[in-house]
Design a protein that fits this description.
211 residues, 23% helix, alpha+beta, 3 helices, five-stranded antiparallel β-sheet, three-stranded antiparallel β-sheet, 25% strand
């Protein structure tokens, strides 16, 4: 292993620590929901601009002026009970850099968007430590948001919105693009078809477009 590779691992550890700290701040902050969201986005832009483990390449950083988002939408925030009466099926996804990734269905959340009842499956990332993983696609994909879908929770990497009165917090204002949305350096597990929503989720991060 080269000295550069050692440095990359230390940088990645620092990046994940800073993402986890950002979400920890979010769960504890007492500003208004909109003010909290705007500050979260500002801090996330700072990470994308300055950190060596940012999803952006050095060239992309040179003209980066901030990620693009929908305005705050209070109707896209839900505190939901988790329905655990599901088939604990396991999916296997092969990623070139990471090898075989295994995710297991462990629950569902049910909610209403624009008068339509919809559901999303919650997955557990199998392997050492594990973590909750919630990817999704919706009707904005390929038009306004990334065609492969977005993530909402990825607790193995610190993306954890927390709970409210023992219910899981599902706030689409914090939906974000997987790293593969920014450049082909990255490979990402994407939402299985059961998490393709037949509604528009007009909240969270928009499609990345280079200046």
């Amino acid at each position: 292993m080269t000295m550069a590779e050692h440095t990359d691992y230390l940088d990645l550890m620092d990046y994940r620590r800073r993402v986890a700290e950002l979400y920890a701040w979010l769960r504890q902050e007492e500003q208004s929901p909109e003010a909290r969201l705007l500050e979260f986005r500002r801090r996330r832009d700072d990470l994308f601009t300055s950190h060596p483990q940012s999803a952006l390449s050095a060239e992309q950083k040179s003209f980066f002026a901030g990620l693009h988002y929908y305005p705050y939408n209070p109707h896209m925030r839900f505190a939901l009970e988790v329905d655990t009466d599901v088939d604990p099926e396991i999916w296997e996804v092969y990623l070139e850099e990471d090898g075989l990734t295994r995710i297991q269905r462990f629950g569902k959340v049910h909610f209403e968007v624009n008068g339509q009842q919809v559901s999303l499956t919650l997955f557990w990332m199998l392997g050492y430590g594990g973590g909750v993983f919630l990817p999704f696609r919706d009707e904005t994909s390929r038009t306004e948001t990334y065609g492969g879908g977005r993530y909402l929770l990825d607790t193995i990497k610190g993306a954890d919105l927390g709970r409210e009165d023992s219910r899981l917090l599902i706030d689409f204002n914090y939906a974000y693009n997987p790293s593969c949305a920014y450049n082909p350096r990255w490979q990402c597990p994407l939402a299985p078809r059961e998490n393709w929503l037949p509604v528009e989720i007009r909240a969270g991060e928009l499609r990345y477009e280079e200046a």
